[in-house]
Write a structure and sequence with these properties.
The chain has one helix and three strands. By secondary structure, the protein is of the alpha+beta class. It is elongated. The structure holds zinc ion. Zinc ion binds next to loops.
Length: about 110
């Protein structure tokens, strides 16, 4: 009898199947990451079809400190990425203004 591979199932509360198939529809289950506040970054294995309720945790439960810190870090990353996008949009506008001003100076210079 073969055991589940490391990429298959590690959690003790998950029923391990040899072929990693959904118990409801028989489709292949996949590993995904939860990004809820209660389980940030914790991986789970489930059927990709929403109508199936075949679900199990892949990672063990996270400690309380992790569940307090990780959502704050995720919000900080999202805020910084938003700031970066705003800065890039501003940079594009400034470069456009520089190019337009150079063209206008060249036109005036040639007159
Ligand atoms: Zn399924």
């Amino acid at each position: 009898m073969a055991s589940c591979s490391a990429t298959n199932v590690r959690s003790s509360n998950l029923t391990c199947t040899e072929d990693n198939l959904c118990h409801s529809c028989g489709g292949k289950r996949i590993i995904q990451a939860s990004w809820t506040a209660a389980n940030p970054g914790r991986r789970f294995i489930s059927c990709p079809k929403n109508e199936c309720d075949d679900f199990g945790w892949f990672d063990p439960p996270m400690c309380n400190r992790s569940t307090q810190i990780i959502p704050g870090l995720l919000r900080k990353i999202n805020r910084l990425e938003g700031n970066l996008m705003a800065c890039k949009a501003r940079e594009r506008k400034l470069w456009t203004a520089v190019v337009v001003s150079w063209v206008l100076i060249a036109i005036v210079w040639c007159l």
